[in-house]
């Protein structure tokens, strides 16, 4: 039996290696679906959180077979469990590497049954990160005259599919749903992008700073995520502000940086983009070094310089299918609405941000 398994393993390994390389080449495009129930002692009530998205909500960690157990939606579920004194079923329907169109069509639409359950109380989604990453890669590879249309196309696609996703969720989420919320984009590789392009601007003939080009595009995407949310009855968890701004007032303007960077309901696109790219530009920091204070910091981004850091182990999710499991909450109560590690890891911070919009009762 050992020899049969050993022989099978030898035949399987090259194929697995090839698949891994293919997944990496395609932006790690694979389904990573997980159901994890926060099983709270002494309660029989159970409610559902449904999360749709790409590798961020998936809890991607570089593996084709597992993902973070406590990605942001499941972290949020722990907060809800304490707030509602209930078991919370965290359903993550995610596809790593998916563009916004793919998340919309093959997760939100194709997997709509998950949010149609009567136990659903929260529906959340995130998208557009891979649209931005692919546009960035395309622009970085350009030579000759710079073609900015790849960035504009990513922004326009994001705006369109975010709006469609919200409309579809509004039409299909169960009537018992109490909260619908989108999570916007942080800027992975903020420091790494502070370099000149290989292409040259048509008007000036000079190379351009990559970060100077990418930041306004990202800010425009984020504005429309939050603005569409305002228009369509969603909340907007501002990951950009939570990741890219320090948790203290670094520029002495009277506001904590992460608060000052947040989208303000009703502001114009021009106002928001100017505030992010010019007015408060000096307060932006790469999320690999997120400052909790002037003297302490945490790393919010994994070594791939893209995906959020996490703690709490992994679950099966990926090439060999999703998984279903349950476990007691890591924390049964939250002083001041925050876990002891709320700002220590990227997924913990994102999950806490989602939790701040939770309705007081289910």
The helix count comes to 11
Major sheet size, sense and barrel closure: 8 strands, mixed
Note the beta-strand portion.
15-25%
The CATH class label is Alpha Beta
Cα distance spanning the termini: 52 Å
Helical residue percent band? 25-40%
Find the count of extended strands (DSSP E, 2+ residues).
12
CATH-defined fold name: Rossmann fold
Runs in which pLDDT lies below 50 for 5 or more consecutive residues are 1-27
CATH hierarchy: architecture: 3-Layer(aba) Sandwich
Using only CA atoms, what is the Rg?
Answer: 21 Å
List SSEs in N-to-C order.
HEEEHEHEHEHHEHEHHHEEEEH
Description:
This protein has 362 residues and is α/β, with parallel strands linked by helices. The chain has a single domain (27-237, 267-279, 306-355), classed as Rossmann fold. The protein is 39% helix and 16% strand. It has helices at 2-25, 55-58, 72-84, 100-109, 129-140, 149-172, 210-232, 239-244, 257-260, 269-279, 346-355, and strands at residues 30-31, 34-38, 46-53, 66-68, 87-96, 120-125, 179-183, 235-237, 290-293, 296-298, 314-316, 323-327. The strands form 3 sheets. Strands 1, 2, 3, 5, 6, 7, 8 and 12 form an 8-stranded mixed sheet that branches. The chain has a two-stranded antiparallel ribbon with strand order 4-11. A two-stranded antiparallel ribbon has the order 9-10. The protein is globular. Mean pLDDT is 92; it is low at 1-27.
